[in-house]
Amino acid sequence: MTADFIAFHAAERPGAAAFVENGRTVTYSAFNRDLRRFMQALSEHGLRRGHCVAVGCDGLYLHWVLVLAFQRLGVATTSLLRTALPAARLAAKVDIVFSEWDFPSGLFRQRHPITAEWINHVRGLPEVDDIALPSKAEDDVVLVAGTAGTTGEPKLVRSSRRTDDARRDSCIWILGLSGRSRYLLTSTFDTGFILPVANAVACVGGTVIAESRQYIGAAIVSHAITHLLLFPIHLKMILDSLPEDFAKPRDLTVVTFGATLPETLRERAMARLATVLFDNYGSREASFVSRITASGSGGIGTVAPGAEVEVVNEAGTPLPFGQLGRLKIKTHVMQTEYFDNPEATKRSFKDGWLLSEDVGVLHGPRRLQIMGRRDDMMNIGGAKVAPSMVEEIVLRLISARDVGAFSQPSSDGIGEIWIAVVDAQLTGSSGLESSSASEHCSSQRSALSDSLKFRAIPPARSNGTCCGSPSPRLGLCRGRPKLLQRLPTVSSAPSSAPCRNCSWAACRGTHRRADA
To answer: Which 3 state secondary structure label does DSSP give 464?
Structure first.
């Protein structure tokens, strides 16, 4: 497991940098020493195999140490965010929370406060030896995490030590990591996405870097970053914030996930930032499934080694190549159930396969095109149309900061495609539809079908809860309900789900600068 690799690097290269946070360097020797002391302290709480703990703290290094120490003891961990309360279903599984923050009374059974006094006490303890630690078993549950919850209530998954280590090891291949890798954290620790990558970097003896004093472009240059992992919306924010004289890095691998990367954004990133750009597709249930590695792919990616994908109809029957359907996925590191949720497990897992909520097309063996989610598809007179396809076409035909496609019934009850155009150049300060915006949309419509309906909307101004992207293809912000609220001629029920984009640690107001 990861702690063993850290001990190896501490013995072989004790002075090598394992973690750098705002200029403070932690060597592999110090990392291993801290891990051993925290293992000693945490074992005194009587926590053992079968227990589950939650970790919540602002210090990224401390968070990482706590999670690794618990997992070495065979204790399942889940990471908390300051910006969002955990789901009640998750909180109910936690035996004790170790946190710097207070929580509503009754949310957790027990809380151990993380204080400066406690940390100093732990660092004064002797380092525990492996002999004194419990034996490691491959079936130890070391992770409990929530799914993204993009359809319905978020569900819980749990990973064994075997699965967790396999996912970590797959990150080494996916990202092309080595001992020379320098990975920049662009998010708070999340046991589902960010932590496996950090663990993979530690396994190969690379360096994990957290920087909040500089904007991302400057941090990439000053820390000689080689690897960056982030949502497409955050990549867009970085590109929007780069100064005109920014020098493109010599060797930077950028990996996006969470939503399909628009071709226009890929072209911008390759021109100004990335040497290599991977658009990865996967899920918390299945892990890495496929990726797009080059421009001009038409949105078609390659299915990863160890992954199998079928496209099926609603009855579960496999469809031939070229037909749109629901994705059925199997990987060597996938989950096989939702924790304590047999109904959801029965719906989504069958015979070792995951029945995904995503839809796509297989264009041949291992050639997969992701079209969106089942609940995102637009029904236009019986034809199913993916919003992402329409948005990509419109972005290539008009000059806009962003677009969002959605459908609404016409007076005849037939679905029509609406295009919301977000562009500061198109809107006046007094309303949603200035004359210049209407003229612009009218002049551009000849290139598109007459069935498309256009509305121009002003760029969102951040209020600390949303990064202002209306289009789900750009990231976690499932913003179509917010977009529809800004179009007075179109009605839609507003979403009550909170936006999570602003929990991005590396944002530091980038979206505010971009939307100003």
So the answer is: coil
